Amino acid sequence: MSAGACDLPAPRPADLLPRVLLGGGALLLAALLAGLLLGPAVVSPAGLLATVLDRLGLAPLPAEYAREAAVLMVVRAPRVLLAALIGGGLASAGAVMQGLFRNPLADPGLIGVSSGAALAVVAAIVLGPAVFGSAAGRLGLWLQPVAAFGGGLVAVAVVARLGTRQGVIGVATLLLAGVAVAALCNALLGMLIFGAEDRQVRDVNFWLLGSLAGARWPQLPIVALLVLLPALGLLGLARPLDALALGEREAFHLGVPVERVKRLAIVLAAVAASGGVAFSGLIGFIGLVVPHLVRLGLGAGHRVVLPGSTLLGAAVLVLADLAARSLAAPAELPVGVVTALLGAPFFLWLLRRRAAMGEDA
Amino acid sequence: MIEAEALTVRAPGGRALLREVSLGVAPGEVMAVVGPNGAGKSTLLRALTGELRPAAGRAAFAGRALRDWPPRALAQRRAVVSQRVALAFPLTVVEVVAIGRLPWLGTPEAARDEAAIGAALRRAGVAALAGRSYATLSGGEQQRVQLARALAQLDGAPPPAALLLDEPTASLDAGHRAALLGLLRDLAAAGTAVLVVLHDLNEAGFVADRVAVLQAGGCVGLGPPSEVLDPGLLRRVYGLPFRRLVDGALLPDFAAARSAAP
């Protein structure tokens, strides 16, 4: 056809990736440092360095840093690392759900993760003592995470089953099934709360609003396994998700095994998101907003959006948790409240901006 | 190259969308598919890409049934330009064209991605749009970007390759129509099998070596344009008189159709 006016070397996603990894990595590192050093009890950089050297066995801990080392090792470090893992997992699951549903409003909650996890946890809180008797107390620390993880996965499995016909996942049906299952879970949850004792209702509320205050070292390897592995697997779906942005037919014409990609994306995102909420309770808006932030700054190619969202999501939740424990110190705000407080206005601004730019699809 | 043998496709309800259609497009040949709305043109195209499974008969590519092709190997040899592609995310033109290189990911051909994308952008006449957001383009520009994406996909394909297009001229102005039809001829001259659904009979007559006429899911005419694009057959198919002009161009006689209407 007519010769192009110029051979302008347009920016390619491949060129952006190193910058994304470097920039995102630096941001995450800064957030981790801030999360470790700041808070109701400030830790000095020297104290952090001394603790690290002590832990690595390079230099014994000077006595004047004993208190700071205790704060870091017992409270801060597991909490900050847990926040990074969960934030990264939620954001990467959100980015993949948006790509899969071809819908910028999607997040893991849409396929039942949050509602299923919430119902299971509330059931564990309210019915646990009756079912497990005195053992419930000893199970305590693990009962809720196991329930949340299992509940999230079961809900996703039900939604996926409802959205599948003759081996083909209908994305629109899946979305509606997700809405219906969420409504059902919420109704059952309401019934459970109706019959619960006051103390249980407080526990339920605490979980529903999300908190990282319960972070402990033994949780970290589990969360790393449940969140990091799927998040890494999701990175491999970047190119197929780009093709899906053109539509399922176009993706098929491009040789993408569409059904396999959809199943893989749903399973990995469900595991990552369920693994995340298992130890933190519900944390909204990270999965929804972070991928948009990345698209806004770096473009919509998934080779940039997926790793960028993972790194930025990790940094954002670390900082949100820092805000949650600092703003009302010595009391703590639920971190889900902080993410929603920051996320909702930002999201509205984003919507207005999209409409103004004529990208209201 | 692209083969249909007694191909029958049914809607989920069981209604036949395509009845026992047989045709074949050879390497180096352009075949145009014409027919009224709802005749089954797009259904035929979708069955020949492997997207729709035939209820009976056979759809094959290079002698092998489409269902037996690994998706990726197929995508390395045939590309499809659909009617209208809306994006879920604000990708730029160059990003959209780059998606066409997906079938070559991890192969030695991937080293030529940049060159293939650049060549496709120029060939489809959209190089000047490379940095623009796809969503902000006009319908005709979007169509040309999708064509560039398909060209990038076929760059490096082991010959013979195939290109299937569904009404690619629908939103194009006269100049870009001519350029697109010329490009299809060039591709055929290089050995590509081209199957193109068209509405404009004169475009079909210009670009095609052979024309297939569909009516109500059946193939009612198949042959060189000079034989098939005959006013008598067209009148039966479209329910409208056609006049052949002195230079061979066909003109639907709207005035006669209006006066004949009850």
From TrEMBL, chain A:
Its main location: membrane. It comes from the Bacteria. It is found in: Cell membrane. It is a multi-pass membrane protein. InterPro entries: ABC_BtuC-like, ABC_transptr_permease_BtuC. The keyword Flavoprotein does not apply. Keywords: Cell membrane, Membrane, Transmembrane, Transmembrane helix, Transport. One of its GO terms (molecular function) is transmembrane transporter activity. GO terms for cellular component: plasma membrane. Belongs to the binding-protein-dependent transport system permease family. FecCD subfamily. This is Iron ABC transporter. It comes from Roseicella frigidaeris.
TrEMBL record, chain B:
The keyword rRNA-binding does not apply. The keyword Translocase applies. Keywords: ATP-binding, Nucleotide-binding, Translocase, Transport. CDD domains: ABC_Iron-Siderophores_B12_Hemin. GO terms for molecular function: ATP binding; ATP hydrolysis activity. Residues 2-241 form the ABC transporter domain. It comes from the Bacteria. Part of the ABC transporter complex HmuTUV involved in hemin import. Responsible for energy coupling to the transport system. This is Heme ABC transporter ATP-binding protein.
